[in-house]
Design goal:
A hairpin with a 3-residue loop joins strand 29 (about 305-315) and strand 30 (about 320-325). The chain is mainly β and about 375 residues long. Helices cover about 5% and strands about 40% of the residues. Strands 26, 27, 28, 29, 30, 31, 32, 33, 34 and 35 form a ten-stranded antiparallel sheet that branches. A five-stranded mixed sheet has the order 1-4-5-6-7, with no helix packed on it.
Length: about 375
């Protein structure tokens, strides 16, 4: 076996250099790459170009020629990477002890699992997770990667599961029976009502329409959003599945949007709550979330509330507005224009300001800060995108 591996390695052309979230450039290895569908058995070695896929091929774990072990999702989204680029010629070995090890020149430099148990196989599941199994039911360890969105032009094949996060409480599944279903804590919350069509699949079209097609390519269900333009479908942490059109505005969702809304009609984020901004920043850790919109974008109230502050020329926030909604306050900052006054009552359709680049700001955006009973909270956990 070692000699065959050496022969394959000698023929490898250095393949892909990928960093998570970065660009993807592909170069095919010279050997005939092996693909393991669903699982690979204990004792298997992956060399450059070899991959393990979910049963329908939508999730792929690839041993790259640069030494990086990378998982790709729908639309070649990078879901996970070992962070080991720069070790060209590395191999991934799944041992009979259940441990997955990256090796270079016979020496291990990274591994998953602790060993001491009998490993049966290692696989990529339809929800994107990667697991080492000792029996058909016992999981030795897992890498909980996930995909929470798809973009225009992508398809969701039978068996594929999208998830909002590492848990299983909020999922969107294209079932083998042809039904597209949203599950919340294991219970169906919405479906396309297309069961009875085994093999059906869903497509997010470039015209903005989400469609379930039968195996005969006949449309079984659609979101009726064909004028929305190319956007994305997102399985959200707020227990909603939302389709955003070409203008990044909500055009369809599985559930009605209630509660407090995001202050701009965009889902583009340039800075997140809790980001470490480095020494010298006060406060060092980002207290809000930044909406990446250009100057002059309309800023709206998040619901029915009262303006408690409308301040111009603050040294840090620039022009900013604070609105109180019961126990929750929402601050929007770096505004170019303030359009409300302290004490004014507002509704979710009220335009309170225009976005800008005032105060300590390095570019046009809206800084959004939320507090509940005076305590800072992550805005994304409280506010729903429009």
């Amino acid at each position: 076996m070692r000699s065959s591996i050496r022969t394959r390695l000698a023929a490898v052309i250095t393949a892909v250099a990928v960093a998570v979230g970065g660009g993807i450039a592909l170069a095919a290895p010279a050997h005939a790459a092996a693909t393991y569908v669903g699982t690979m058995k204990a004792g298997t070695t992956l060399v450059a170009g070899d991959q393990v896929t979910s049963n329908n091929g939508q999730y792929r774990l690839v041993m790259q020629g640069d030494g990086n072990l990378v998982q790709y999702g729908i639309g070649n989204t990078v879901m996970y990477a070992s962070g080991t680029a720069g070790k060209a010629g590395a191999t991934a070995v799944f041992g009979t002890d259940g441990v997955l090890t990256l090796r270079l020149a016979g020496k291990a430099f990274k591994q998953w699992g602790t060993g001491g148990q009998r490993g049966l196989d290692f696989g990529v599941r339809p929800d994107g997770t990667m697991r080492s199994m000792s029996t058909a039911k016992k999981v030795l360890w897992a890498i909980n990667s996930y995909q929470d969105r798809i973009t225009a032009g992508a398809v969701i094949l039978p068996g594929t599961v999208l998830r909002s996060d590492n848990g299983n409480g909020r999922t969107f599944t294209m079932q083998a029976d042809g039904n597209l279903v949203q599950y919340l804590s294991g219970k169906a919350a919405w479906s396309s009502s297309t069961s009875g069509h085994p093999g059906a699949w869903a497509a997010l079209q470039t015209d903005g329409n989400l469609v379930v097609y039968g195996t005969d390519k006949r449309a079984l269900w659609s979101s009726r959003t064909s004028t929305a333009g190319a956007g994305q479908l997102l399985v959200q942490l707020d227990s909603n599945v939302v389709l955003y059109g070409g203008q990044s505005t909500r055009v369809w969702s599985t559930r009605a949007v209630t509660g407090l809304l995001w202050p701009v009609a965009s889902i583009k984020i340039s800075g997140r709550y809790g980001d470490d901004r480095g020494a010298g920043h006060t406060p060092r850790y980002h207290q809000g979330t930044d909406a990446a919109v250009g100057s002059g974008t309309a800023v709206y109230a998040s619901g029915s509330g009262t303006v408690t502050e409308a301040v111009a020329n603050h040294p840090s926030y620039g022009n900013y507005v604070v609105v109180k909604y019961g126990l929750t306050t929402v601050l929007t900052a770096h505004l170019s224009v303030i359009e409300v006054k302290k004490g004014q009552n507002v509704a979710k359709s009220t335009e309170i300001a225009k976005s800008g680049n005032t105060g300590q700001s390095t570019g046009p955006h809206v800084h959004v800060e939320t507090r509940v009973n005076g305590t800072l909270k992550d805005p994304i956990s409280l506010l729903h995108f429009r």
